[in-house]
Amino acid sequence: MAGTYSQLYIQIVFAVKGRENLIAKAWKEELYKYISGIITNKGHKSIIVNGVSDHIHIFVGLKPSMALSDLVRDIKNNSSKFINDKKLVRGKFSWQEGYGAFSYAHSQIEQVYNYILNQEQHHHKKTFKEEYVDFLQKFEIEYNETYLFEWNEK
Question: How many domains does the chain have?
Answer without folding.
Answer: 1
